[in-house]
Amino acid sequence: MGSNQSIGIVEPKTAVLGDLRLDNGSILSPTVVAYETYGTLSPNKDNAILICHALSGDAHAAGFHSESEKRPGWWDEYIGPGKAFDTNQYFVISSNVIGGCKGSSGPMSINPVSGKPYGSSFPFVSIKDMVAAQKLLVESFGIQRLLCVAGGSMGGMQALQWSISYPDVLENCIILASSAEHSAMQIAFNEVGRQAILSDPNWNNGLYEDSATPRKGLALARMMGHITYLSDHKMREKFGRKPPIGNLLNSDFAVGSYLIYQGESFVDRFDANSYIYVTKALDHFSLGKGQELTKALSPAQCRFLVVSYSSDWLYPPSQSREIVKSLEASDKRVFYVELTTNEGHDSFLLPNQRQEDVIRGFLNMPVNE
Amino acid sequence: MGSNQSIGIVEPKTAVLGDLRLDNGSILSPTVVAYETYGTLSPNKDNAILICHALSGDAHAAGFHSESEKRPGWWDEYIGPGKAFDTNQYFVISSNVIGGCKGSSGPMSINPVSGKPYGSSFPFVSIKDMVAAQKLLVESFGIQRLLCVAGGSMGGMQALQWSISYPDVLENCIILASSAEHSAMQIAFNEVGRQAILSDPNWNNGLYEDSATPRKGLALARMMGHITYLSDHKMREKFGRKPPIGNLLNSDFAVGSYLIYQGESFVDRFDANSYIYVTKALDHFSLGKGQELTKALSPAQCRFLVVSYSSDWLYPPSQSREIVKSLEASDKRVFYVELTTNEGHDSFLLPNQRQEDVIRGFLNMPVNE
Questions:
Q1: Contact status of A212 with chain B (Cβ, < 8 Å)
Q2: CB contact under 8 A, B241 and A217
Q3: Nearest CA to B124 among A252, A246, A254?
Q4: Which of B12, B156, B165, B236 could form a disulfide with B175 if both were Cys (CB 3.0 to 4.6 A apart)?
Q5: Most distant CA pair in chain A: distance in Å?
Q6: Residues of A with CB below 8 A from B24's CB?
Q7: Do B224 and A223 touch (CB under 8 A)?
Q8: Domains and CATH numbers, chain A
């Protein structure tokens, strides 16, 4: 990679923003957004880049919260001094989606009326709503134009939505490993995850207590999801048919004990209601395909970079090409790259010199190219 | 298809056979095997074909149990008068695997010691053990040589195991949509299914009562499995992003309500313990790969037909080619066909003129070709 330097210690922040009218008509009040920033906003506020996270991500995209934190933010490989999103040049904003459980308004927020967490009484949140909350955050900095919005997977959907919700705000849009709408198979995997949560005896229609959360259901949802983020190749390489390490976990195979561990550790850091809300936002996001998609994307004015990954079977390159085709059909400026990788859908999160070069090259290109 | 004629009414039968020493050293006594036969055994007993079923299959491969049965056996398209496995020519035997729950010895059998169902105290059963029980059944007819053993998916593993367990019994072996061993990803999907059952509060270490079975866990396992049996293409075609029919089931999408229905109906016809036993048999089946596989297959004397399906991402064509490569490496007689289909792993179960022609052609070919 171009640089191994980290942005260093970063401070998690929370913005309490104005009311937000959601897609479904409900009013979210207040709109709370957890965020982090990296780099310095230029005096004329023209160097801001917004980073959007995927399903289980959060605002902590780069750097460390403390000296003792073991792992940096989820995209530290790409955000920092000298990196693709170069914090020596850009002011990078990363925020947590509403509907999530990492500090932004969501099912775990306290309902001011009842004084208790919303749980499943939190209103349905769409990708468009997530983006609208981010817009409030960006405005709170006095920023009128974003140099770029970038994200992978669900983050890519947000970036795409930005380009049409606020076409005059965006200069560039980077969409990695994403889709203009979920296929039946993508919905199906999410649905089984949701059903696993709903099947948990602690589910209680989403009104569970802290003392008895639907851990087992959420762990199952994560285990299954995790398979879809990897590739056959990667799993062969990493686990093959090896037996489990130790004999602590209830599986005959290494891949089984790994998934059980992933499920168990996920429930300590994620909320079951948020899992349902966010996967529903993913499944309901639909800009259509073909002419319908071309029409949906027609308001966009920015330049696009679309990246897909050869080993990604969950968000296959064909879905990225569908976006590219529709953008080209209405003469948008669009660059498309399919990267050859072995890591499946997770590829966009992992170190990749070529991905770094592609993002850097796109951002450094004169605007009219 | 060549013929739409069904074999008609067939009678489910049960054979109580001798003791069987299982792979793990336990003795199964008695060995009970549920089976059906179609066609007539020739006087010199040289026209018998054994059909092996997949994970959730049973002995009912063709015909109807009664006039009122709505759907015929699972491979009725291929077994019957004038069909690929032509019951005018062949005596077709189809049996239920041991470890299953469709009449053969398995976790639902009564343990003669306790007078109660074995449940999870039933011994571990391997693919080799399933085949050994089938051998006892075949012997009970006085059959010395089988014209063919054929099966898809887990049935293909059984057919492959037959070729090396009893090389002097087999003339032909047909292996469809199968593998010489599960990859990490195949194990992973089964593992999540097992974990779903183990997470069900009714699981009780496999010692559940009829009145409270781990239905929810088993339904989840089936829902997830079902996704892997289909293809992205087939799901787009069948469901796309359509809303559910009616509003009875807890999903926003047709594909979700379909999977919920599949899960619900599966628990009425399958046992959770058997699901665990049979998926473990699948995951533990391992003839190796490359030279190891070549060595494992070296005892085989029969002729092979190996068929894979272009849209099968669960048992991808590469796994079939691995078998073919190893058979060729030790100069076995092997024919390989990759059929172009859209239906995913389930392809081998569905009507396909080309598959019918390939099977028929293989069976009709003079033995030395």
A1: no
A2: no
A3: A252
A4: B156
A5: 60
A6: none
A7: no
A8: 13-181+286-364 (3.40.50.1820), 185-280 (1.10.1740.110)
